[in-house]
Each structure stands twice: as C-alpha cells, then as structure tokens.
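Bumping with the actual sequence this time:
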Amino acid sequence: MVPCKSVAFAALPLLVFPSALPAWAQQDRTSALLEEVVVTARKREEGLQDAPIAISAFSGDTLEYRGITNIGQIASYTPNLTFQNNPSFSGSSNSAAVYIRGVGQKEFLPTTEPGVGIYVDGVYIARSVGAILDLIDVQQVEVLRGPQGTLFGRNTIGGAISLTTRKPGPELGGSVSATVGDDNRADLSASIDIPLSDTLRSTLSVASFNRDGYVTREDGVDLGDDDTLTGRVALRWLPSSNLTVDFAVDATRDRENGPAFTLVDINHGNPIDPQTPPMAVIHNVGANLAAGGPPAPCAVPGMELNLAVPGCYDNRYIQGDDFNAGTAPAFSELDLWGASTNVSWRPSEGLELRSITAFRDLDSQFSRDGDHSPQLISQFFDDLQQDQFSQEFQLLGEMNALSWILGAYYFKEEGNNINLLDFAISSFRSGGAFDNEARAVYGQLTYDFAQKWSLTLGLRYTEEDKKFLPDQIIFSNPFSGTGDPQLDAPFLQPGARVLPFVEKEVEIEETTPMVTLSYHVNDPLMIYGSYSEGFKSGGFTQRVFPPIVAGFTAPPGTPDIDLIPTFDPEFVEVYELGFKYASADKRFTLNGAVFHTDYDDLQIQVFTSVAPVTENAGSASIDGFELEAKLVPGGGWVFDAGVGYIDASYDELDEATALFPKSNDFERVPEWTFNLAGSKEFGLANGAAIIARANAAYQSQTFNDAFNTPVIAQDSYTVLDASISWVSAADTHRLTFGGTNLTDEDYFVTGVAGDAFQSREVVVARPAQWYLTYKFQF
C-alpha cells in the first residue's frame, strides 16, 4: 500500500475469500464472518468486541470485495467520517480533507496540521497532499473516533485512520488483477511473495491506475483524470522466535491534469469582507474601459451577462458539470517515496519492545485556473517539497491483570511551499520554508480489577517547535502609476515584501489525559465510558495579502517578527458512552456509542481581504452517536448497516473576525450519515459460487465552507453501488462486474468559494460508472 494521487459493522467489511478451501466448504463463504475480528487500535491484538473504543475495521479482502481502491472511499461505509479529496485553492489531485465526529481540517498548507491522523504501519503521514492512499497489499484499515494521543506517535485531535499492510508470507504465491471500465479505465496490479530463505521473506507489489478525466477544457485538457504508478517492496526477517524485523520501501508517481473543478456562480456584488478588493468587479471595470465604456455595464448584480463586452468576466463561463473554460496551465504532479523499519523483540514472556523508524519524501507541483475563463482573475501554482523523519519506541508489558505500554516519539519535518499567484490586482509569490519538530512521551495501562471490570488510564506529554520563513514578494501590479489610493499604494509596488523575510518560531507544550472504564455485563454485552482530551497544534498564516507592513497595514514601529501572523492550538474534551453486543452464535452484532465534545479555540478558516487565513475564533459543542450492525442469518446472506448523527454548534464566536454568524453550520460535517449493504452467495455444484452485493450510502445536507455559501452546498443524497462476482471453487479465479453511482446521483465531491475572487467552484462526482475486474491468485 502506498499513497496515490487520484459501517457498516466491522464484520462484513472483514469478509475474506480463503485461497484453498475444499469444494464442500466453498458453498458458504459467509462462515468466515463468524470469526472474531482482531484489531490493533490499542497497540496489542484484541477482539473488536472487547475493545472499549469506537472503531470501524475493514480487511483488505473486503475493501477489494466492495470495489474500494483508495482510502477516501471508506467514508461511504463509516458513520460520522467525512473523507474528501479537497484541493482547496491548490491544483493538487490528491489532497485529503478528513473529519471524524465534526473535527478535522480542509487546508493543504504545510503550516497547518491535519485534524485526523493517517498512519501506515504506525508511521504518521504528515501532509494532506499525497495522503489519499491507494489500497494495495493492505491487511486491515481501522478508523478510530475521538482523540488518540496516548497511543499514537503524533497527537491526533479528531481521530485516526490506521492502515496495516500485508506482511510477506512463507510460501511462493501472489495475485494479478486487471480492471477495465468507463472513461477508458485501465487498472493493473500484481503482488508476489518470494521466500528468500527459512528466515527471510519478501513481497513485491506494483500497480497502475489510469482513467480519462470527465471535465473538458476548451484546449482539450480533461480534468479529473488518473495516471498513477505505485510500487512497494517489503522484507520480513525472522532471525529467532522472539525477534521480527519488517522493512518496506514504497514509491508513487502521479502525472495528472488536476481536479475536475467547474464554475457554478460568480458573485457580482460585494465580498463578505468590506476590506476585500472584489477582483471580478475590478476586472470588469477595466474591461468596460477597454471596450470604450458601452452604455450597458459589464457585469453587476442584475446584469450577470453582457456579451457586448468580450473581456467581461461573467456568467458566460458557467458551462455545466462537464466543461471548464479555463486557459491557465492545469496539471498535478507528485513523486513520493518512503522507507520504514519495524522491529519487535520479545525478551521474555509478557514483555515486548518495538521500534518504528521511518523516512518519507514528497515532491509535488500543481497548477490550475481558479476563474475558469480566459480572463485573469485568479490563477494558482504551487511547489511543495517536504521530507520527514520519525522514530518511535514502545515498551509493552502484561502481568497478571495488568497490561501497559510506554512510548517515546520523535518527529522532524522540513520543506518549502512556494505559491505563485496571478490575480486581477497583482502577481506575487507567497509561501515559504517550514521546519517542524515534535517530541512526546506517553503511557497507558489497563487493570482488570474485577472479573468483569477494567480500568484504562493514559497520559501524553508533547513538545513542538515550529518555524516558518516566509519568502513572499510582489512581482507586478497592473495598477502601478494609476494613483489609485487602494490599488496603487506604496506597499503594493513590484519588489515589495508581503511579509518580512525573517524566520518566526512558536513553541507548544501540552499534556493530554484519557480514562476508560469498561464492564462486561455478560458474554454477549460489554459497556464502557471514557473521557479523553486532545489538541491540534497551532501554526502560521502562510497566505497573506495585502502585505503586512508597519506604518501602513500594521501599527508604526511593529517589529518585523510580530508582522508574521500565527494562530494557537485548538483543544477538545470528549465524553463517550458505548456498548458492544454479539449474540452467542456471532450471527448478530450491534455496536454503538454516544459522545459529547467540548471544542475550544477553534481554528476557523476565514477571509480577511484577499487571503483565507486561520484564526482561533470561537468555541463549540458537538453531540452525536454511531450505531453499526451486522447480521449473518445463514443461507449465504449477509446484511450490515451503520448510522451516524452529529449536532455541532458554535457556543461562542468572534463574528467580527469570522465574518459569519454563530448560527451557521460546521463546514464539511453532515448531520446524518447512513449506509446499508446486503450480499447473497449462491453456491454452484462444482464448488464455485456467485456472489451478488449492493450497498447504499446516504449523507444529509453539507456545507463546503464556513460561510455556508448556498451555491456550493451539497443537498442530501444517496449513492447506490452494486456488483456480481463469480468465484472459482478454490478461489484462484474471480470475475466481478460492478457499477458505482448507479442512480447517476449529481453530487459535489467538494466546493470552494473565494471571497475576493468572487468565483464559486465545485467538483462534481463522476456519473454512473461500470467496471469489470478479473483476479487470479496462485
């Protein structure tokens, strides 16, 4: 499994197809669902029904069974999880915006931290660019809800998504898979286990994902395409019975045209922020003058289209779901590689020492036309370079009724993000160099103090040092020399610095606890209650315009270091009550949790003038619940369902800073999520089987920005997928024909509204698609 570009209850997602079952056993593969699911969310193997945490789990086989090829698609099967590919104002085709229970982050900038941590074999993926992972050679995916600071290396305020890769096997074997489908889809993947000796095993995996785009520009560029090549080499060394060493190297190469944005609206009126220069309006004033000032205005409220002015930026460029009139460069290129070593040593029974060492390198460039027209309103280019190193040590122990873990974690990343921005009012460079370092120690112990009672206590101490060196300068100003008091100001001239060229550092120090009490009422039922705290680091406002200059846009005499804007950490306190029930025959399971979150010092992205910035603008409360159920009645039938509910509201809000009322809904957080799936296996006389499945996922209305802009909001919708598979008797051959979005639902993957740019944009999901997959296992 490596990054790409591009619940149901856990038991059904963990459906497997054994590789060599006898013919009589092939008649009902659903019997595999009755085995208990094993998870490692608490850094030790335990049954899913015994883990007193809110978690959804998926096996790699089940992800394939559902037709899931990247991690973002699991949101359709996981209550209260939002996982978008959200480029924001960038042109990246791979930018993860993840929210769990209303807590997350949509921004891709490296000076802002994700709200949900993504981990691969215990290694934290620091940047959202490149974090939408292709799922090849995945053993299991676990989605953990709520703060996870006391067990995961980097603190995670909203939750964690943990991927475990499949380890090399002791025998020669592997698989080859090919998929074809709509839009010239052609996916190929192969994996082979090669034992090198009695103690050394290896796995080689490669995959290629290719598909045409589905939004076409006037110049023939098709947006939303996929062109990904990824590979992974893994080694497992077993020198003795108590020592295991896993080493892996992965690499990904993406070459795509960028996200499938289309223009849905232009605000021809005033921006929300009265200090913001309205770029579309300013451009249209110039277009009117260039055309000789015709009697009819170029574009104002009530006159959104005037073809008499050829240079006007107006509704002529709103051209539907499958066309984009942009002309600026559109591309998204990403090269990513990483290496990790996981060591497990058991010096004695009940004691284990683990070491996780990892390095990752990201090199990406992306560009897009934000106004979707031949005019120059807003055009973006980014160059993001980042590398990270992490080292974690864990000491795990068990002694009678006590189990415990102690950990120490070190993380270091550095890089540079250069934004080249061409706007109607200026052309300039934004961004700069970043250097982040984090250290943490943590511990957690569980004490079974009675036959049915367990108490878990956890504590984490974190130190972080974050540095930012802005390298931001104005290249040109089309209004230079005009004398305009706002657009031709002295600090807006070519060569002027947007921010001082000095490095600023912030230091963060936090301690976060957790406590969980669980009670096994009887064999089928366990209940638990927990309290946990979490935080997300503060950072720097990377996007700034107009320049912050002492004596002009800042008080006279302000030191340069104080002109670089920062924001503080945000915090949550989460109270949770949950239960887990499994019938005696394991054919019915029902898990649920209710939670309350106190959310303080929210990092809210707001607009002040041209740039969207992050401010600690308020506090909030989030209440909700999840229910996940599975039923295996026999006869080859399997049903599962999940429902999630979130009631998120602002308690306090600095409306003068946020520029929206506290009655607004949270962005990218639907109130309701629901999924329902069913499958039926039909056994054939020769031991083969036909398996039919269908699943529906529902999401209530969702706003894509903090302003709750209606035109980019997504109404409630339901997506229906289905497939039918033929599986050979020994499961060596599998042929699947399937369809996604079968009702051709017209819904937004994401939406962006730039206050200054006055453009409202969306990425519409692909329409109904078919695919055909053949897989051979040996």
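The tokens above came from a reply further down the thread. The domain at 2-268+314-777 is CATH 2.40.170.20 (Maltoporin; Chain A).
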